[in-house]
Amino acid sequence: MHWRRIVAIVRKDLAAVRRSRTVLLPLVLVPLVFFVLMPVAIGLLARFLPIDESDAQDLERLLRALPAAERERFQALNPGQQLAVIFFSYQFAPLILIVPLATTMVIAADGIAGERERRTLEALLVTPVRDEELFLGKVLAAALPASLVDWIGATIAALLAIAVSGIGPPLLPSLSWLILAYLGGPGVAVFGLSIVVLISSRVRGMQEVSQLSGLVAIPLIGLIVAQGSGLFLLDWRLALAGSLVIWGIAALLLRVGRRSFQREALLRLG
Q1: Radius of gyration of the chain (CA)
Q2: Which pTM was predicted?
Q3: 118, 16, 13, 107: CA torsion to nearest 10
Q4: CB neighbours (10 Å) of residue 28?
Q5: What are the tens digits of pLDDT across the range 72-121?
Q6: Of 56, 57, 107, 260, which is most buried with the most CB atoms under 10 A?
Q7: Nearest CA to 198 among 247, 250, 244?
Q8: What single string gives the DSSP state of each residue in the chain?
Q9: CB-based contact 95:34 (threshold 8 Å)
Q10: Is the distance from CB of 196 to CB of 209 less than 8 angstroms?
């Protein structure tokens, strides 16, 4: 395996992303919304949102979904601060996983299906680059930027939320939020990447890949709805278990995707 070839593929894919406004725009807007605007809004909510009786009842219902040890930490906070912590650290915490998921899927879809549409993939496939080198280059070109965006963005989001709300660790961010951001985020990125690889080996265009890949976000939305209904809130144990499960599934799907990533099949679709 020649790492120079792999690095060259990574650089080529990232250069193509920088040149494409349609690809670059969502890579900027999605992190801006979830890592900047959302934590600032939640922090302002802690300072200025009035809590009436019905809101207090909803808040109490959400607090009861927490383990007793974590619930005790909320006693020193006023209701607005309690609501901000619930929103940022628990209820909306799965939303941060959308950023690495969207980042890796956009880059991977452009690097495989997008190149096939632009007729630039065929030129790469007839070079001496081996299938495993091409596959690893495409994987790294999508997974590394997604993980970096996730880690840097999560750090910025946590610092903004702390600065605006005046609440700090271990409540904001919570341990479960940190696990989702720094362990679950890269796992979700690899999971989304493996889905794109599997779909790209079976369909022709980038639009079809994007539409089918978008279905991956549905479980995250379902998780947010379930937490909002008071069924449960993600504590650190659930966050850790979920992150490890995601990594396991992602590794399995990536192995399957590697087997389907054959230049003969890619050329046939092209």
Answers
A1: 21
A2: 0.85
A3: -90
A4: 10
A5: 777 777 777 888 888 888 878 888 899 999 888 888 887 777 776 766 66
A6: 107
A7: 250
A8: --HHHHHHHHHHHHHHHHH-HHHHHHHHHHHHIIIIIHHHHHHHHHHH----HHHHHHHHHHHHTS-HHHHGGGGGS-HHHHHHHIIIIIITGGGGGHHHHHHHHHHHHIIIIIHHHTT-HHHHHTSS--HHHHHHHHHHHHHHHHHHHHHHHHHHHHHHHHHHH---TTTSS-HHHHHIIIIIHHHHHHHHHHHHHHHHTT--SHHHHHHHHGGGGHHHHHHHHHHHTTS----HHHHHHHHHHHHHHHHHHHHHHHHH--HHHHHHH-
A9: yes
A10: yes
For tokens 């006693």, name the residue.
Answer: 75
Residue position matching structure tokens 């880059």: 107
Name the amino acid, one letter, at 191. Answer: F
For residue 103 the two structure tokens come to 């980042």
Question: Which residue in the block uniquely carries the two structure tokens 């020193």?
Answer: 76
